[in-house]
Task: structure prediction
Amino acid sequence: MKERLLGKTPAELTEIARACGLPAFAGKQMAQWLYQKRVRSIAEMTNLSKQGREALGEKYEVGLTGPIDVQTSRDGTRKYLFQVTCPVAGGKQEESCIEAVMIPDEDRKTLCVSSQAGCKMACKFCMTGRQGFHGNLDAADILNQFFSIEEAGELTNTVFMGMGEPLDNWDHVKRVIEVLTADWGLAWSPKRVTLSTIGVLPNLKKYLEESKCHLAVSLHNPFPEEREEMMPVQKAWSITEVVRLIKQYDFTGQRRVSFEYTVFEGWNSTPRHADGLLKLLRNLECRVNLIRFHKIPDFPYGTAPDSLMESFRDRLNAGGITATIRASRGEDIFAACGLLAGKHKERI
Result:
């Protein structure tokens, strides 16, 4: 099986070039072909010698693979299904499917990207968490989602909010962010990238120190004992500790932190919960995004009515925290928050 060039840095590409008998500067040329010209094959790297390209092709490939299925929502949202091969225990590999969602909004096209096949975190209200964990995606698998969709050249933003917990796969996600924001890569501003996490504390600290991108935290309940009912990760990394860490960093400038809060009727939507949020997030420059719950099988709580979400929002705003109700996108194709399951449409 050939090694993929996608996801490698200019320094790594330089070493590969030398090993294939190419001059050192070919590494920089290869990076331009991969990330700026977005070639799909080594044969297209025409400023490399033919002999060098042949030597490269014996061991390497670009690593782009198209989606195996595409669905389009009535609101224009598109969900792409990709087949991936992930390492599993015992040195074996397992084939899985992951999904990426392209969300159009006026002059923006945002890609909601997956970082894992499945998820370890097992949140009870999330379809991805219910399927279990099937492996980490490497940088090439993640970048392939950016480069192999129809809107690849039109993307303006990305959110690491697809399948998986990004900070549980930080080494590969960090590499992808580098490709997205480096001058030799896509040269995006860090402001165009948002990473969503459940609160993996050791790697959250690394993210805050090693990146300038935005942060979104899946909160969903301000009370630790209640949060643990639906989010087992609370046992390992308490939301109070997560917020305490975040408060050590500056979010008064261009970098933003937001908190994702799915509103369930009968679990986390009372005035007591709103007041608990106000207390937890006091003195932190942030936003709370209220998310409509999309009903899933065998789950005890229902979707909160609009009136309840609005009163919850208003109570937060009155208390000094900016809160908004996020528009739901792609629900009819199971592309909305918490619904990604990596399945063919005929199996959903």
Remarks:
- The chain has a mean pLDDT of 92.
- The CA atoms of residues 70 and 80 lie 5 Å apart.
- The first helix runs from residue 10 to 19.
